[in-house]
Amino acid sequence: MSIKEDVLKAMKDAGKPLSAGEVEKLTGLDRKEIDKAFKELKKENLIISPVRCKWEPAE
Fold first, then answer.
1. 38 and 47 in contact (C-beta within 8 Å)?
2. Which domain holds residue 39?
3. CA gyration radius, the chain
C-alpha cells in the first residue's frame, strides 16, 4: 500500500476527523510523509477538513 492509501485507511477506520499527529500515532508513519500525503489527498479532493487542522475522507 502507498502512504496515501495508509493515511486514508487510518482516517476511514477512525471514523472521525483526525489531525496529522493522530494519523502519525495510528500508523507509525513519518510526520513529513503524512503531511505530503495530506497535500496530495487534498489536491485530489479525497479528504476534507470539517474543522481546522483535522481531516476526514470525502464522501
1. yes
2. 3-57
3. 10
Angle at 26 between CA 20 and CA 27, to 5 degrees: 85
Give dist(CA 48, CA 38) in Å, integer: 10
User: pLDDT for 1-52, tens place per residue?
Assistant: 799 999 999 999 999 999 999 999 999 999 999 999 999 999 999 999 999 9
- The CATH number assigned to the domain holding 7 equals 1.10.10.10
pTM: 0.87
| Number of neighbouring beta carbons within 10 Å of residue 49 | 12
Distance between start and end Cα atoms, the chain: 21
Question: Rounded to an integer, what distance in angstroms lies between the CA atom of residue 43 and that of residue 16?
Answer: 21
